[in-house]
Amino acid sequence: MMASSYNAKDEDGHHPGSVGSGGPGAVKSRKPDNTAFKQQRLPAWQPILTAGTVLPAFFTIGLVFIPIGIGLFVTSNNIKEFEIDYTGVDKSSPCFHCSHNYSWNSTSACTCSVPFTLEQSFESNVFMYYGLSNFYQNHRRYVKSRDDSQLNGDKSSLVNPSKECEPYRKSDEKAIAPCGAIANSLFNDTLELFYIHPNGNRTPIHLVKTGIAWWTDKHVKFRNPGGHDKNLSVAFQETSKPVNWLKPVYELDPTDPDNNGFINEDFIVWMRTAALPTFRKLFRIIQKKKDSNTPTLQPGNYTLEVTYNYPVRSFDGRKRMILSTISWMGGKNPFLGIAYMTVGAVCFFLGVVLLIIHHKYGNRNNNADIPN
Amino acid sequence: MTWTDPLTLIRHGWARHKDTEGPIRRVVSNLPFEDLKKRDQPNRQYEGNGIKTNKYRLWSFIPMNLFEQFHRMANLYFMGLAILNFVPMVNAFQPEVALIPICIILALTAVKDGWEDFRRYQADQQLNNMPCFIFSRKQMCFVERRWKDVRVGDFVRVLSNQIIPADILLLHTSDPNGVCHMETANLDGETSLNQRKVLPGFSTLGEPFQPQTFDSTVVCENPNNNLNLFKGYLERPDKRRTGFGIDSLLLRGCTVRNTDEAAGIVVYAGHETKSMLNNSGPRCKRSKIERKMNTDVLFCVVLLFFMCLIAALGHTIWLETFDSEPPYIVPDSNGNYTPSVLAGFYMFLTMIILLQIMIPVSLYVSIELVKMGQIYFITQDLELYDEELDTRVQCRSLNITEDLGQIQYVFSDKTGTLTQNKMVFRRCTIMGTEYSHAENAARLAVLNGANEEEEVTIYQQTKLPPLFPLDELQDTQDKNHTNPQVTAANLRRSKATAGAQGDMAFSSPLETVVVPDWKLKLEVDHQTGPYLDFFLSLAICNTVVVSTVTSQRQRVTGRRNSSYSSSSFSSMRDWFRKRSVQKVFTCMKFSRRTDEKLADPFVIDDDDPDILHIPRVSDTTEDHPYFISRKVTSNKGKHSPADSEEVCYEAHSPDEAALIHAAKAYGFTMVERTPHHVTVKLPNDVLMKFEVLDVLTFDSTRRRMSIIVRHPDTNEIIMYTKGADSAIMERLRDVFSDMSQPDKQIAVKTQKDLDMYAEDGLRTLCFAKKVIGEDEYRAWSAIRQEALSAIDEKEERLMDSANCIENNFSLLGATGIEDRLQENVPESIQALRRAGMQVWVLTGDKAETAINIAYSCKLLDNEDLVVTFTTMKKSVCKMRLEDTLGEARRSAGMNSQFRGHNATFTGSSVEPSIGLVIDGPTLSMAMSDELVDQFVELCKHCRAVLCCRVTPLQKSDVVKLIRHKLRVMTLAIGDGANDVNMIQAADVGIGVSGQEGMQAVMASDFAITRFKHLQRLLLVHGHWCYSRLANMVIYFFYKNVAYVNLLFWYQFFCGFSATAMIDYWLMIFFNLFFTSAPPIMFGIMDKEVSDSTLLSLPELYRRGQHTEGYRRSTFWIAILDAFYQSLVCFFIPYWTYNGSDIGIFSFGTPMNTISLFTIILHLAIEIKSWTVVHWAIMIGSVVMYFIVTLAYSAICISCNPPSDPYWIMHKQMADPMFYLVCILTTVVALLPRYTFHVLKGTLAPSSHLRARQLERLPPSLLPGAEDQRGAWPRRHVRVLLTRVPETHKNSAP
């Protein structure tokens, strides 16, 4: 019976076993199974979206969102933040001379000091950020221009970095470590904070430079070649420093071997490319003093001493220094709180509108269907 | 997937090359060359019998499959993009990674193709290795080989019930008459037996077949796919030629029956056999949605182009703003910076790569999957399963399921489609006297009623034991009233049993049992000449084959016919046993009675008082004792073959079956038929053996068939002819010269009766006889032989020869055969019309018959104005057309005015109710160029159109005309070979697998067994498939645009540098795993309105007709919504994280998550009914997202360099802000759509929504709701209808 009809059966293709049933006697009924699934009779929940049925949803959203919004807004407002632009665009700005005279090729450092006043005291830990504007760290070619296995301590990648690093891959026939455009453009200003006592004394504020990178980055993703014990200058001896760098990678923080080379936290933070052209990056942490009576930063006059190395004039950029406390929701940002409140209010309003509609029209519709 | 298999192409190329030697094939015996090498074989150029339907070989699978897949535009597009990604200047991702999606899609398709191909391969192997017997010269006998070893020129022997391995020219059979029966069910589904004859000159009786002596050359035509045509001749060494035709060819795939052994020479083998050439692959049609979708894909391309253009311009302008190069612009490897304009151009290409999924690549794959699922559910539907034939609905076309939901015009065949094609003998007229067969009519009426009330009737009977004093059954008058019911129940039961076994063609009791008209019976018993002739012609003028129970062919289904009586009896008894115990006694008595009745359903004689006949002729039995006494005597001492064995008839057409059973009812039983003899048992038990001189078979041009026999007693040569009335009447003996007055009167009277039959909706056949003189016959026989052996223009010559003898008839009489309507046809037609479909009937029958059927199936109403167009003159046709059109326009205008005033109610009852009846010749005039527009417009105004006397070609012309002129979706449904054209011309072709073979089914997209299934197929499955697929396609567009736009918005913040803030692997996963299953499930399983509601409210179907599910506006709304949602999904995180220290991929992670939530919940809003599967897949997708993302970002430290997914997801998930952003964004993104749905559901609910609300009501409030097909109260419908916008009704073209 298979002789020529199997093709026709193949066409519908959905009768399991129809092909194999050769010869008489082997045929079973082709009656479909009477199961809820096959007969499309599975028990189903069939929501009908009408004003009446969704009213609770709208009111619930409204009632939940507004408190969340208020909470977020209050939290955000409690965060203290201070921001100062030290780019030196204005002539009056203390860093004006530096910004104009400095380029990547300069060898001598230019320093300037920016005075500022804090009106409020900063309690708890204060996070010190540097901020860059108009810096497109998210440019596609820029983002790609790195070699993660090199940064992970891979020996072969160290001397033979990925092609993605071009043209910052080799200099003078030596592999660049760390290679690529991201590393090459490492932010290298040095920022120092001094508290000016009312009596004119300058007290340097202790800035902690570890703990600013993700733990996983520091301990898993970034590794120095050759492990911890070895002398970094030996490990990096076959490489050359990135073009724009003043010193090689193993001299990023000569004082602390756990913060040197690829696992230097400033470097790690920089390597996590920012999502948007205006961004901040964590630079230092001012830790709350042990005796918790005095605030971390008391109101008063301060000076920001800048070693101005990083040129931003070419792309019309801005450099900022930001001091901020943080809460569970991160830095200061009132947007989410406002958004929550707005959306909650809108939902609540819609709920009211739907309630009216439901009373006016909903009943009429339902009644029309139900014979008495 | 429309590609041609290159192997076939090559094969065909070869074949063509080989065939250049001529249009004929010469085959000689292989035996003398048995030991020679292959290249010395005479038949070497012909294909062997091994078949290979699989496309690929193991080694060539990958290249060939890829080659085929790249015939698809979408695959090419994505491959092109992937290759573009290898160009360093423009690449957006790592080149290797960009290959992944396209590779996965190709691999999936390849696996699917490979699996299908492997199944084909296995089936081929199974066939190729089947055993068969080939003659070997060495062993001088038939040896067992495999099918694949058979070559052209081999001699093959086939035993009974074996399958024929190749096309074999029949040279020998074990049958003394040189015939071989074969069952072609595998080929065309026909269950009747076909008779094949041994080539003339080879039917040497009793001698064993000796192939080694075969020294002739077989000359025949080249292989073709015509199953009914084969011609050639045998050339003997002395150049004598013997012609042969299809009736000597055993076809591959058929089964030999009733014949112990047959042998012959193979002429076609393997792929060249007729059955293989008839195997065309599945049909490939583009559905309407897909055509529309393709334009929308183009819109997407345009959109993509503009987005890329914006990015390119943006990039150029952005680059121009810098005086010197900033550190974040990376020069190329030589340290040079690309000029900004060129960079912009590169950016354009890069953006195409980045935003490529704007063109939904997975859409095509998903649609295929969805359609597979939809087809699965259609074929699984129990309601569409036919218990009797053990057949499910067949979906032969894989990709037009949703077209079923958009049908606007239905073109239906009549016979076998609307009607059962189970012919029932109703009346006859002999020599001008009409015999009404009133009792037979009464029996049929009862049968009809029993169809519906079977169970009830039987139940009542068992409850009335005192009414059954068994032996006095026919004595008491008032008990007779109950009897028709009993009989009906019995018959119904036996019919059901017979039907369930499905073992005999046209042999249900309904058709076989004829109650003779007693008046006619009397006449017959007097045995007056014309009556004898009439019944003789009924009995022998046909091609019916007799098979007896003992030699009953064994069905492939394994059911034996011989178990018929006993099984029906036992099942009957079982059934009665289930009844209450107290009633067992009466039940058993009852069933015994049943047993007697059923034991021999074919012979209507009983020694017992006949419960079948007597009650209804009881008024007359007293007056006609002869009737019964004759029966009794005739049944005494009967030992004729017909009585000792059951006679089963295998008829080609139901008409023939009906006629031969009618003849049998009057005692004229055909007992045996061989090619040369036909034996008839006369009522007086005399066996008459007629020698058959020739049979002029039926064809549609002559519309008659004749048999020429030699009368055993008188030795006269007599030709009996039956045919359509026109075909016979015009060939009667000349009216003016020698036609005598009574003859003329007979002709006139018969014609009058015929007209009456036609009005009653009966099919009419005329019977005539002609006595041929010996000389005349001899002269004609010579012409005939010449025609038979001709190879060129054989048909014409055969036809001429037939025409030349078929004249000067003397009329015997005519019969009226009823073709009963199928069950639920009127209801189905009404439902289809309520659903807004125009139903046309195209039939080859007479206008009167067609109109009658149209009334009875509610196609025409009594109030309808029926306009009949039958004219021979074009001018008349034109005039009438204009008149009717004017009238139609007026009434339509009035109606629209009326509707304007009563806008609240627009039922279908105010549609113009004109019924148009047009016959074939007039139709061709109306379809001529100058009248066609008017005709089409008139048709638009008509409630029903009936085309009668149309040819198959006209049927398809009508379909094409309406389809192209009105631009509507058409459906054609038919069951016969004459409907094939029409089925192929329509958008959707439906084949009814019924009594007339499988040609229609083979040509169709869907095959059903009953017309009533059409209702469910269209209203339920069509509607579901349409709205499911439409929603899914829209959703797919939305999904891709919404996701891709996230990337686009980001370009404004990364200097248009084509950065993706989402890890590329996660992007791939997003489309492949996280969001692919829900829409597919949505497309397969969503159910807005339940099937019972759809059936009771056919009006809901109109949404699909007006393509409301998928309009251009729907598409653009979806796109706009996608834009809005992507804006929300991008900018809420943007503002949240703006100015912070967030990294690129930490920024993208919440967006990806938000997108997932939005896209999934968007679907959740659209899903209308949530089953377990829905919940599982929706929740599963979200869970999978988190698991995969977490795992990926935990494992991948530096595996995907630029994106560094390491620990990002964990970091984000530890941050409460992440959740706050996700929740807020999802709510904002979905709020408009949700609110819109809510407002629409409250203020302007669609008819579907209202139907769903109706479903919610408790059943007690819905009278009739418990009955699936019962119409809902008119009031509900009206409420619903008021919601169907007015414009839609009028905009129907």
From TrEMBL, chain A:
Chief subcellular location equals membrane
Q: In which organism is this protein found?
A: Triplophysa rosa
Q: State the compartments where it is located.
A: Apical cell membrane; Cytoplasmic vesicle, Secretory vesicle membrane; Golgi apparatus; Membrane
GO biological process, alphabetically ordered: phospholipid translocation
Q: How does it sit in the membrane?
A: Multi-pass membrane protein
Instruction: Give the superkingdom in one word.
Output: Eukaryota
Pfam families in the record: CDC50
Q: Which UniProt keywords apply?
A: Cell membrane, Cytoplasmic vesicle, Disulfide bond, Glycoprotein, Golgi apparatus, Lipid transport, Membrane, Transmembrane, Transmembrane helix, Transport
**Keyword Transmembrane helix set for record:** yes
Q: Where is this region: Disordered?
A: 1-33, 146-165
Q: Which InterPro entries match?
A: CDC50/LEM3_fam
One GO cellular component term, please give it.
endoplasmic reticulum
| Compositionally biased region (Polar residues) | 150-160
- The family this protein is said to belong to: Belongs to the CDC50/LEM3 family.
Q: Where does the sequence pass through the membrane? A: 48-74, 335-357
Could you confirm whether the keyword Cytoplasm appears in this record?
A: no
Name of the protein this chain belongs to: Cell cycle control protein
UniProtKB/TrEMBL annotation, chain B:
Q: What catalytic activity does the UniProt entry give for this protein?
A: ATP + H2O + phospholipidSide 1 = ADP + phosphate + phospholipidSide 2; a beta-D-glucosyl-(1<->1')-N-acylsphing-4-enine(out) + ATP + H2O = a beta-D-glucosyl-(1<->1')-N-acylsphing-4-enine(in) + ADP + phosphate + H(+)
InterPro entries xref list: ATPase_P-typ_cyto_dom_N, ATPase_P-typ_P_site, ATPase_P-typ_TM_dom_sf, ATPase_P-typ_transduc_dom_A_sf, HAD-like_sf, HAD_sf, P-type_ATPase_IV, P-type_ATPase_N
**Keyword Translocase appears in the UniProt entry:** yes
* Amino-acid positions noted as binding ATP in the UniProt annotation, renumbered to this chain: 413-415, 656, 698, 722, 763, 843-845, 949, 955, 978-979
Q: How does it sit in the membrane?
A: Multi-pass membrane protein
Q: What class of enzyme is it?
A: translocase
Provide the P-type ATPase N-terminal domain boundaries.
41-97
> Its domain of life?
Eukaryota
Biological process terms in GO annotation: phospholipid translocation
In terms of Pfam families, this protein maps to: Cation_ATPase (PF13246), PhoLip_ATPase_C (PF16212), PhoLip_ATPase_N (PF16209)
Q: Detail which positions bind Mg(2+).
A: 413, 415, 975, 979
| Protein name per its UniProtKB record | Phospholipid-transporting ATPase
Query: Could you tell me which species this protein originates from?
Result: Triplophysa rosa
